[in-house]
């Protein structure tokens, strides 16, 4: 029986296929390609809250999908059929061909979910952003972050590794993120300590994100109780926008610093709660030679109209206007 898959997520399957090709090479063993595609599909569903699709497939964990003969074997067969996937074919056609094979084997059918978009104001976006950033900035302040990571990790350390733990922890950077250079310590102790520190980092970051989401939910509830409630409502099965937002922070592509973490949480909640934000209003400043401008400032010139500052020199700014770039005077008389 076909399984409904959001039409808007189909492009993600081609992106997954492109990543597999980049990692393995299009001419890789078909079994390896099939395993990577299936494992990637599982991770994709978990990353976007489509665990309901996995339930329909009867999948409990990633290994169930990538090793299950009823999925892997037919996918290997399709990848070996040149009419469906030609490893020597045009490079730009391969991701789609791989994705199509995956879709066919899993019996996915494109569906258009009901539109649940909630349009919010730019002012509210600012409030939610500040609520998230305020908590995360405070809880992940370098000295507090380092102390929390070390105390969390040390609490789980076995007694025989405590001396090694203290030596390694003592050399961590100011945020507790960077591992020290290799010390002359037993390899098993080093491995155990590094594992504990890695787990502690994610525990501390997740705790901060959870608290920040609570604060943002409170702000959102004042404007839209429905939007606030969706944060902890299951998307397709058990996963909620909150759970997915925290899970995405495990992605190595999200730097473990306050700014990127707050942005990742905001983006995930906006996406999965279906919040539509208007474009941020530009703060347009009138042009005056005595005013000091910065790169990125938007100004309005009486002759050239509205432009954006692209570069700064001593009392000179380069501004991009609709008619082209012009150099203007600024900060004249500024001390």
Structural class: alpha/beta
Major beta-sheet overview? 5 strands, mixed
Low-confidence stretches: none
The amount of helix comes to 40-55%
- State mean pLDDT (0 to 100 scale): 91
* Molecular shape: globular
What series of H and E elements makes up the topology? EHHHHHHEEHHHHHHHEEEEEE
Bin the strand percentage. 5-15%
Give the C-alpha Rg.
26 Å
Q: What is the end-to-end distance?
A: 74 Å
Counting DSSP E segments of at least 2 residues, the number of strands comes to: 9
Q: Order of strands across the widest beta sheet?
A: 5-6-7-8-9
* Tally of helical runs: 13
Please describe the topology of this protein.
Elements: E1 3-6, H1 10-24, H2 30-47, H3 51-57, H4 62-67, H5 69-79, H6 94-106, E2 108-111, E3 118-119, H7 122-139, H8 142-155, H9 162-169, H10 187-223, H11 225-230, H12 241-248, H13 258-272, E4 275-276, E5 284-286, E6 298-301, E7 305-313, E8 316-321, E9 324-329
Parallel strand pairs: 1-2, 3-4, 5-6
Antiparallel strand pairs: 6-7, 7-8, 8-9
Question: Which features would summarize this protein structure in a list?
Answer:
single chain, about 325 residues, alpha/beta, 3 domains, 5-stranded mixed beta sheet, two-stranded parallel sheet, 9 strands, globular
Folded structure, characterized:
- The protein is α/β, with parallel strands linked by helices.
- It folds into three domains: 3-111, no CATH class; 118-276, no CATH class; 284-329.
- It is built from 13 helices and nine strands.
- The chain has helices at 10-24, 30-47, 51-57, 62-67, 69-79, 94-106, 122-139, 142-155, 162-169, 187-223, 225-230, 241-248, 258-272; strands spanning 3-6, 108-111, 118-119, 275-276, 284-286, 298-301, 305-313, 316-321, 324-329.
- It has a five-stranded mixed β-sheet, with no helix packed on it. Strands 1-2 form a two-stranded parallel ribbon. A two-stranded parallel ribbon has the order 3-4.
- Helix 2 (30-47) crosses helix 5 (69-79), helix 7 crosses helix 13 (258-272) and helix 10 (187-223) runs antiparallel to helix 12 (241-248).
- The protein starts with a strand and ends in a 6-residue tail after the last strand.
